[in-house]
Amino acid sequence: MRGPILACLSPARVPPARVRRLRARLAELYGVPRMPPHGHPIAELVCTVLSQSTNDRNRDVAYLRLRERLPTWEAVRDAPVEEVEEAIRPGGISKVKSVRIQQILEAISERGDLSLDWLPDVGVDAARAYLCSLPGVGRKTAACVLLFSFGMHDIPVDTHVSRVGGRLGLFREGAGFDELHDAMLELTPLGAELELHVNLLRHGRRTCHARRPACESCAMRRMCPGRIA
Ligand code: SF4
Question: How far is the CA of 183 from the centre of ligand 1 (A)?
Answer without folding.
Answer: 20
